[in-house]
Write a structure and sequence with these properties.
Layout: H1 4-26, H2 39-45, H3 68-75, H4 83-93, H5 114-119, H6 124-128, H7 145-154, H8 161-164
Bound molecules: heme C (HEC) (5 copies).
Length: about 170
Amino acid sequence: MRTVAPILAAGLYAAALLVLGHAQQAAPAGPAQPLPFSHKIHAGTLDLPCGTCHLNPDPGKQMHYPTTSVCLQCHKVIKKDSPAIQKLASIAQQDGKISWVPIYQLPSYVYFSHRAHSKAGARCLDCHGRVALHEVLFKEGDISMGGCIDCHMKTSASVDCQYCHEAIEP
Ligand code: HEC
Ligand code: HEC
Ligand code: HEC
Ligand code: HEC
Ligand code: HEC
């Protein structure tokens, strides 16, 4: 029995390291944002619909990031003494635009429209992963050419080069 304990302890230690290693792999770091905004709180716990903060204005290619006015609907009162919310309030007094750091970005030679995909039945989840589970967002979804083509083949959408890339001028 005496020799078993240290071996067991070593085994548990190794198992703990494995678990830790996996935990780190499961949540790669996203870029630092100007405010510590959490999708896990807002889209997860509070269950706010994505559209509360992400509008899709005409012509519908891009999604909007929220401005301070959306946040202040709640944070005029909620946590108003926290340093992060005081920073939010001071940005609101300037121009209300928060300099969120983009995570998903396509090169300019790729044509993409959010609205066309929403109309075709694609969900946020299909391209951005399980946003509501994360404290800090990272690039979880696959927006490489392979990722796009994979789904286009599954949904019988076109895979012609010129569907996604403008014709190259001769
Ligand atoms: C209360 C407001 C709020 C709600 C609700 C919300 N978001 Fe966000 N979202 C933000 C803010 C603020 C950012 C920018 C900071 C960041 O990346 O976390 C952002 C960033 C993102 C990004 C990263 C875009 C990029 O490339 O920079 C994605 C993707 C996203 N949200 C998807 C979603 C989805 C899907 C939902 C619903 C499940 C959702 N959001 C709900 C406020 C919100
Ligand atoms: C529907 C109401 C609602 C909206 C809209 C909302 N929040 Fe929140 N927010 C909350 C609640 C509730 C909490 C959790 C407060 C707590 O921990 O007691 C929270 C927590 C936070 C925190 C953590 C504060 C701290 O110090 O613990 C930050 C930062 C934050 N929100 C930023 C934002 C930003 C930025 C926006 C706009 C993009 C936003 N929130 C929109 C309700 C909201
Ligand atoms: C078919 C894939 C796909 C779906 C579905 C999708 N997105 Fe995106 N999203 C992208 C791509 C690709 C980008 C990068 C666009 C670019 O750089 O032009 C992006 C960028 C964003 C951005 C950054 C602003 C922008 O438009 O560049 C936000 C915010 C965002 N998505 C939120 C959402 C939300 C919320 C939903 C669901 C309502 C959603 N997305 C559905 C692929 C998708
Ligand atoms: C979840 C599945 C899915 C993913 C992922 C996806 N698409 Fe699509 N896409 C579709 C469907 C479905 C249509 C509609 C096809 C139709 O109406 O015939 C479509 C249509 C399009 C169109 C034509 C619509 C328009 O605006 O004229 C383009 C361009 C396009 N996708 C580009 C992309 C690019 C670029 C990516 C990767 C960043 C991508 N798609 C990722 C499913 C997807
Ligand atoms: C469904 C959309 C879609 C289709 C169809 C498509 N592409 Fe792309 N392509 C993309 C996206 C998205 C990227 C950008 C990938 C990235 O950001 O790394 C890309 C990137 C590229 C690049 C640059 C690659 C690099 O490594 O720099 C080339 C070249 C290219 N595509 C050629 C083609 C050709 C040729 C076809 C037809 C056989 C085609 N594409 C069809 C979406 C598409």
